[in-house]
Amino acid sequence: MKFFIDTANLEQIREAQDLGILDGVTTNPSLMAKEGISGKEAILKHYKDICEIVDGDISAEVLSTTYEEMIKEGEELAAIHPNIVVKVPIIKDGIKAIKYFSQKGIRTNCTLIFSAGQALLAAKAGATYVSPFLGRLDDVSTDGLHLIQEIRTIFDNYGFETEILAASVRHAMHIINCAKIGADVVTCPLPPILSLLNHPLTASGLEQFIKDSQKMQ
Ligand code: E4P
From first to last of its 217 residues, what are the pLDDT tens digits of the chain? Predict the structure, then answer.
């Protein structure tokens, strides 16, 4: 399973990269705005900076919602670096844009997926990734993991190569359950990834080993 970091914060991206387990980065307009990035030049530069830190797939989201504008914007984003994956919302024009990009060899991440039908359409159009938003479904009392399972079954039934990128992942159990289901990728901020390290028996065991090691010196 691939681990992507879900942030536009360069420090957090560097910290995750230093861990040695990072496979890519996802961003969205809210995460970019949070870092104070605004204006076309600044946006393109920020994605370039991310590509220089991480050698893996970097999702860059289009801001427009019409077919023509998404094509123009997506081609500009894809030209930044070969690792850029154009992130496109699951709307009618988005599906048309994904089809266009896939024929042009531009990789895509279809975002804002909240149903199996949406994931199926995106895969049919040739999306490289689909991003079901696990945590946001849980937020409205709907089982997000069930959606990941449904998409896994559908993609396996028909041999779709589109990868399931579990997004809106909030905690360690989301990551573990996504791994059990067979999501291809999880994306989340750094804290849920680091929380996978935690176990009280590891902490107390290490404390004891350090104490005993002093008797050996
Ligand atoms: C990633 O592609 C999504 O934009 C992101 O995971 C959404 O996460 P959130 O629901 O925590 O905002």
Answer: 999 999 999 999 999 999 999 999 999 999 999 999 999 999 999 999 999 999 999 999 999 999 999 999 999 999 999 999 999 999 999 999 999 999 999 999 999 999 999 999 999 999 999 999 999 999 999 999 999 999 999 999 999 999 999 999 999 999 999 999 999 999 999 999 999 999 999 999 999 999 999 999 8
Between CA 59 and CA 88 the distance in angstroms is 10
Whole-prediction pTM: 0.96
CA of 201 to the centre of ligand 1 (A): 32
CA atoms within 13 A on the CB side of 94: 24
Amino acid, single-letter form, for residue 205: G
Query: Does 28 contact ligand 1 (Cβ within 6 A)?
Result: yes
> Alpha-carbon distance 184 to 55, whole Å?
18
State yes or no: is 87 an active-site residue: yes
Q: Whose CA is nearest to atom 5 of ligand 1?
A: 168
The residue whose C-alpha atom lies closest to atom 10 belonging to ligand 1 is: 168
Helix and strand numbers (H, E) in the chain are: 11, 8
